[in-house]
Amino acid sequence: MKLAIAALTAATASAFAPAQTDRSSTALNVQWTEGTKALPFGSSPDTLDGSLPGDVGFDPIGFSTQPFASFNNPLYVEGNFMSDLEWLREAELAHGRIAQLAVVGFLWPGLFGTLPGAEGYADFSELNPFKALSTVPESAIYQIIGGCAWFEYQRVVRIKEQGANRVVGDIGIGYPGAFNPLNLNYTPEEFAEKQLQEIKHCRLAMIAAFGLICQANNSGTDVISQLAPAFEAPEYAAKAGYFLPQGI
Fold this sequence. Notes:
Elements: H1 2-15, E1 32-34, E2 43-45, H2 68-76, H3 84-112, H4 129-132, H5 138-162, H6 188-219, H7 223-227, H8 234-240
Antiparallel strand pairs: 1-2
Helix pairs in contact: 2-3, 3-6
């Protein structure tokens, strides 16, 4: 039932959508080029023109050939739109930034400990993030959900206000003219380099977060507790001895 309602809603919204501009592309009119900067084999769609930081032509599934702008823009912006590729980069940055926070959240408790809890009320000592969901108070979960919703709402507001002039990924922190407590003042070249560094960190963090989630779900413990014993192998030392002589 919910799926049917969502489909009808999407169909209704598309009926009132303005005419699509030439900034959007479809899978039917995209040309594919053999070989990419990312891989010596495979092909790359011409929608990846290298205009965005970190664009090395890697899109084997063809996400960049789909009309994401025509789907998203009627929900937020009237008139000038972000392009399909800009919408994809917006999503990539959003997920990558969350993944970076998630990686820190996975590692921090095992390395530095957890917050003290309230006796008989809250237990913050659980290191496994999946188990921690059932040990912390519900109010803490609601705070996290509320905080995420507020940030997402602010992002949507900025997308609607800026339209096609939007700096992709701008959340009002650190960008030119935005909240900048560290007084960062990059040249255009330095800013482009920071954008490249960020997207690389985002991609790496998404892979790392996926690995940490699978590890925690499979092992039932935090990654630090599982990783530390890997550097100790007493059963092997008992058989073959240590590489370096002891006592020197």
